[in-house]
Amino acid sequence: MRAQPAGNRSVSASALRICLLSYRGNPRSGGQGIYVRLLSRALVELGHAVDVWSGPPYPELLPGVDLVRVPSLDLWNDRALLRRPSLRELRDPINLSEYTRTVLGGFPEPLTFTRRVARRFARERMRPRYDIVHDNQSLGPGLLALRSQVPVVATIHHPVTVDRRIALAEERDWVKRLGLRRWYSFLRTQRAVSRRLDRVLTVSESSARDLEREYGIDSTRLRVVGNGIDVDVFRPMPGIVRRENLLVTTLSADTPLKGFVYLLEAMARLREIHPALELRVVGQLRERSPRARALERLGLAGAVSFTGRVTADAIARLYAEATVAVVPSLYEGFGFPAGEAMACGVPVVATCAGALPEVVGRGDKTGVLVPPADARALADAIAGLLASSERRRAIGMAGYARILSQFTWRRAAERTVDSYRESIAERARLAC
């Protein structure tokens, strides 16, 4: 059944009708589905009307938020990976473009999603139904067509040019390097589109600085709105006893960006002093990836275990059991794993890369920061916490308080709405 557009729902005069775009919304893999689910809920709780327009896999939305499905070829579906479309599907020029560019090694899905949305807007005359369109890092050319009708803002969580640079630095095979460049070819379009939107929202001061430098976005168009932590899920669990020798980390993707190899090297050092120490990893390694080879080389197979894909509730329970949570990333646009662990009251050791200091806090009171790509510093910081249960408890409590005071979804939604209203007002002034 088609969702009722926000423009047809009864809202107060001060409420906004928001179209929130996400080119995919998988609630169990990656952060996009979680982001749109929690932000849309917070926006509705503030009294606004929200439709989420998403390509497959579709997000699981909370009551009060409507989903408008935007079907695609869904070429990255685990159950039919890179399937061959029918001739009927390929008669659609957007589908043909998406399939051709994908088989040539690109990732056009974010860009073609916005073209489908723009076509549907034009066919269904959506302009009166929404006050603002908010794109979640699709950044395709279709947004410029929408912008001719309604103000368009976009969230960029961090510049993906950083991911590309780190991936290319790790890869030595020239054929694979060419493949990486082809995969990231969508960035050229995304950077160009981002510079022409009404506002670009981002989640940290670090990301804002990087976007100005990497994407060439004028600082006057950038707004830091932050993120929130789902404190209904990630919270202290007093009924669960913390273990004495359990480290927990999150590996949302088996990429060099996550710095996992440095944590493995730190583990090898720590096990010389703490032979019972274990590492539980939320996620999974790819077979024969550089991280998998490092695990084998360091002889840690018996000390490191992987959860695979698990629910947020299961992750929160794991944090409740953990002695220390570790975030060894080489870059983070925000740092959900650090914030979620802190919300559970577990002490965090993280690098000072990207936005992590903004989330964890400086001064070793709400968490411990170390330089990125430094296994020795990581091991020393973890060892310092393992040596003192009182210090672990104090940092865990202070970190929990920091999340509650600074990183709720309501506060993030309020800042987002301020940017919406600013964009709408500016467009109205220019129209006069």
Describe how the helices and strands are arranged.
Elements: E1 17-22, H1 32-45, E2 49-54, E3 66-69, H2 87-90, H3 93-103, H4 109-124, E4 132-136, H5 142-147, E5 152-155, H6 160-170, H7 174-183, H8 186-194, E6 199-202, H9 205-215, E7 222-224, E8 246-251, H10 260-273, E9 278-283, H11 290-297, E10 304-306, H12 312-321, E11 324-327, H13 336-343, E12 348-351, H14 356-360, E13 368-370, H15 375-386, H16 389-406, H17 409-431
Parallel strand pairs: 1-2, 1-4, 2-3, 4-5, 5-6, 6-7, 8-9, 8-11, 9-10, 11-12, 12-13
Helix pairs in contact: 1-17, 3-4, 10-11, 10-15
Please explain how this structure is put together.
By secondary structure, the protein is of the alpha/beta class. It has 2 domains: 6-228 and 409-431, Rossmann fold (3-Layer(aba) Sandwich); 246-406, Glycogen Phosphorylase B (Rossmann fold, 3-Layer(aba) Sandwich). It contains 17 helices and 13 strands. The chain has helices at 32-45, 87-90, 93-103, 109-124, 142-147, 160-170, 174-183, 186-194, 205-215, 260-273, 290-297, 312-321, 336-343, 356-360, 375-386, 389-406, 409-431; strands at 17-22, 49-54, 66-69, 132-136, 152-155, 199-202, 222-224, 246-251, 278-283, 304-306, 324-327, 348-351, 368-370. It has a 7-stranded parallel beta sheet. A 6-stranded parallel beta sheet has the order 10-9-8-11-12-13, with helices on both faces. Mean pLDDT is 91; it is low at 1-8.
